[in-house]
Specification:
Elements: H1 2-21, E1 77-82, E2 96-102, E3 107-112, E4 118-124, E5 127-132, E6 141-146, E7 151-154, E8 159-163, E9 170-176, E10 184-185, H2 186-191, H3 199-206, H4 210-218
Antiparallel strand pairs: 1-2, 2-9, 3-8, 3-10, 4-7, 4-9, 5-6, 5-8
Length: 226
């Protein structure tokens, strides 16, 4: 009888383990609202695929990533993302390449990528970079000053940033573990949402006077992603 109980216990544990390890594919868009009419539906987790026989070299190609981008904007940076929207052949491959140009004292402001981790390499200049861990980890700040050839990793979902502390421009390249990692710039999302978040909510959350929130919500929040 004990042997039967033992085998039953093993079976239950095996079933629980298989259920625990199973999961849905990670989404490649912000949300997916269910619809009853299939004619009003969109393809999920990527884009429709063309007939493989019709694929051509141009589907996997992009030219001009060597060209410096314009950083003459309020935050002094320009992010060029080569994701599936720029290179159709990336569809389903789970990768993105990024070039980031920084003006002197420019920055890529605090932001997150909800669907991908990032690995960044500096090819010109110096960058002060960092990310903040989750609440459960005590919101620890991990920072490093990177020189040319240095590499830094930003784990998926962590708020992170890059700042050019130098007198000359800087350039970095990054790889993301998604064909559409998404970008949520913290200031833009919190103070520039459409429609605006109730100022009472933000005043309480940031523990500041409501007039401060009103001022922040009225200013223009620049998006450096292209």
């Amino acid at each position: 009888m004990k042997g039967v109980h033992f085998l039953l216990t093993l079976a239950v544990l095996a079933l629980a383990s298989s259920i625990a390890s199973a999961s849905d594919p990670s989404p490649l868009q912000d949300f997916c609202v269910a619809v009853e009419d299939p004619h009003k539906a969109l393809f999920v987790n990527g884009k429709f695929c063309k007939d493989p026989k019709l694929a051509k070299a141009e589907d996997f190609f992009f030219s001009g990533l060597n060209v410096p981008r314009d950083t003459n904007n309020p935050i002094g940076s320009n992010v060029t993302q080569l994701n599936v929207d720029k290179i159709p052949g990336l569809n389903t491959l789970g990768i993105t390449l990024v070039r980031i140009d920084y003006a002197p004292y420019g920055q890529n402001p605090p932001h997150t990528h909800p669907r991908g981790s990032e690995i960044l390499v500096v090819v010109k200049g110096t960058l002060y970079v960092g990310f903040v861990s989750s609440n459960q980890d005590g919101n620890r700040l991990f920072t490093k000053v990177l020189k040319e050839g240095d590499v830094f990793v930003f784990p998926i979902g962590m708020i992170h940033f890059q700042f050019n502390p130098g007198h000359t421009p800087a350039v970095a390249f990054a790889g993301l573990s998604s064909q559409n990692a998404g970008t949520i710039t913290i200031a833009n999302s919190v103070f520039g949402s459409d429609p605006a978040i109730n100022p009472d909510v933000l005043a309480k959350a940031f523990q500041v006077d409501k007039n401060v929130i009103n001022k922040l919500q009225k200013q223009f929040w620049y998006d450096n992603n292209n």
